[in-house]
Amino acid sequence: MDRTNHSAAQDPAGQDDRPPVLVFLHIPKAGGTTLGHVISRQYPREAYCEVTFDRLDTFDRFFALSERELGQIRCIKGHFPFGIHTRVPARPVYVTMLRDPVKRFISEYRFLKEFPRVRPDLPVPDEALASFGAYLDHCIAAGALNWQVRQAGGFLPLGELTVPLPPLPPDALEQAIANLDRHCVVTGVLPRFDESLVLMKRKLGWEKSIHYLRENVNKAPQPAGDISEADRRRLFDHVELDRKLYAYAEQRLERDLAAQGPDFAEELARFKRKNGRLITFQRNYQRWVPGPLRRALRKLR
Fold first, then answer.
1. What is the pTM of this model?
2. DSSP 74
3. Which fold has domain 21-263?
4. Is there a smaller number of Cβ atoms within 10 Å at the N or the C end of the chain?
């Protein structure tokens, strides 16, 4: 089976009137783990599947599903490129969360410093984590920058990654934007996580709680001066496509929020008040609350 990238023009044929399949395009280090827990709560466990570069066997299992099994799926989530929807028979509806690419890359570097073996999809040699400049050099050589354009544009394989990744085509940004415009019901941005989440709830008709605790946040102290201004400027220049995609996402979200009625602000304020109490609890007590109790708390929200 062909697992190469897919463009928006390759829309599945023969769609039926079943409920749409939600496809959560999880961008690394962009609030996706937190959002993924909220999304999982909305669907029966047997109705969603996770497919992720972190565990290549999940791609194998997904592509081995029968037509009957694929027809039962209502949600796909994980680290994968746009285009995975061409395998399912029902109409796809995407959501994603983007992040300022400079902040996202820095967060990724610091996370890998803390957990260096967390990315089996694109292994990082120890010497590449010796400094921020070394990690940036490694990612430039591997073609692993502008990752948000790569995922949203479908410029990654549906399976094992090999480095260096092929260069992006000249119209990569335009294709990524076209894919999001055509298929993504909400393109959220991390600084406006709550607004993005409430908008998803409205547009997708979620009935279960969307309250959350922050997940997968970098916990190690961030040393001052570990990133030089020269390396920041280098990174800024190399992620131009992601910067433009992120700017588009900010503008689109602003338009989508402006189109909501006046009751949206009231709903958002109620949500922020209630969820703020959860975040305060987490910030003040997470050291002393054992893991099982934290997991129970997430299920009860």
1. 0.89
2. -
3. Rossmann fold (3.40.50)
4. N
